[in-house]
Amino acid sequence: MVVWRVLHLREHDDVLLPPLSRVALSGPGRARATALTMVAQRGRRDLAVAALTAAEPEVRQAAARILSRDPRPETADRLLAALDAERAPSVARVLLGVAGQCGDRGLAAAVRWLHDRDAGPVAAWAMGRIGTPGAVRRLRALVAGRTAAPPAVRGAAARALGAAGDRHNADLFTALLRDPDEAVRYQAALALTEYGRSHGGPPPSAGPEVTDHLTELSGGDSPRVRRAAADALRVLDPG
User: Fold this and answer.
1) How many whole angstroms separate alpha carbon 205 and alpha carbon 61?
2) Are 32 and 19 in contact (CB under 8 A)?
3) For the chain, N or C: smaller number of CB within 10 Å?
4) d(CA 81, CA 161)
């Protein structure tokens, strides 16, 4: 029945598209967001551009999702400009995915959201993807606790450093494995696993303390930390 309805709608696109386009241009909140998605599936992604400045966050979020699939440089410029002006974390989370593909152009926008409880972890991920010296330096400061941030953001920053292949901060990972917050310990173990898989072993500056802490965590109270620590041990010391 669902398949029949989809086919039926597509057969009548010439009838549906004009009213859907009107809703996508000026409809109320959730209806406009839904209409934007529907007309984009029918080739009208252009209507999402104006929606980036809509009053309702759900409309801006839908527009950002649609336009984030457009690889053209001018679209990336529009999305970065929208991120500079954005105030809603739910929308910023979508736009930060584009910032992570834009190098230093996306760094300033990502930094602005780095300390937000909801969007901060995505901002850290974006900065890890950016991977420039400036992005890595800011992530190191965050992981080391030199700038205040929620635990989930610090953990995400640690994982971003691991994914970025940061070779010179094993001491930071060692400290994070002892962090009082479970989410930070978990992300630190994941970061070391990702580093080991990418580079075939632990960071060059890692001492035996890393293995000792991972071994301790692999027998700890948190199930997900136990699993992550055990995985890191297998990757970093396969022998």
Assistant:
1) 42
2) no
3) C
4) 26
Q: pLDDT of 173-194, one tens digit each?
A: 778 888 888 888 998 899 888 8
How many Å apart are CA 27 and CA 88, to the nearest integer?
A: 20
Find out whether 214 and 236 touch, Cβ atoms under 8 Å: yes
Query: How many CB atoms are located within 10 Å of the residue 227 CB?
Result: 15
Rounded to two decimals, the pTM is 0.78
Q: Say if CB 219 and CB 184 are below 8 A apart.
A: no
| φ and ψ of 29, to 5 deg | 5, -100
Contact partners, residue 45, CB within 8 Å, separation at least 6 = 66, 67, 70
Region of 145 please: left (phi>0), alpha (psi -120 to 50) or beta: left
> What sign does the dihedral 131-132-136-139 (CA atoms) show?
negative
DSSP at 180: S
Q: Locate tokens 């996306």: which residue? A: 106
- 4, with CB counted inside 10 A (0-12, 13-18, 19+), is exposed
193 Cα distance to chain centroid: 19
Give the start-to-end residue ranges of the domains of the chain.
Answer: 1-63
Tokens of 92: 């910023």
